[in-house]
Write a structure and sequence with these properties.
This protein has 131 residues and is mainly α. The protein has four helices and no strands.
Amino acid sequence: MMGWSADRLGPAKVVLLGLLTLLAAVLLTGFGAANMTMVTVGLVLLGLGWSAATIAGATLLVSSLEPDQAVPAQGFSDATMSLAGALGSALAGPAMGWADYSGISAVVGVVVVAAGIWVGRVGLEPTTKGL
């Protein structure tokens, strides 16, 4: 679904839609931390927003490189994302104990807003081959 959306709408728009979906997710989990339905909907939106940003971001990465650079760059990107996931898994329990959904949502919300500001300033359309 996200690949199709990136092809139809353009990957930059899908990244931005993913960021907006992530922002909705953190608002729901942050303000609705005591409501299981709001947390559940927020977590579903988290998955959709992550998927949109990741798939469209990978499309932008590969399209900005020469073909011989694309596979190693995508591999490095995937390995970095996997490492971040492993670290996040290791830190999830202590983070929930320290900050609960509300605190984690606030931190992630700041990161999502910062990413949106950065995207607005720098843009996302690939302009140079062979970075």
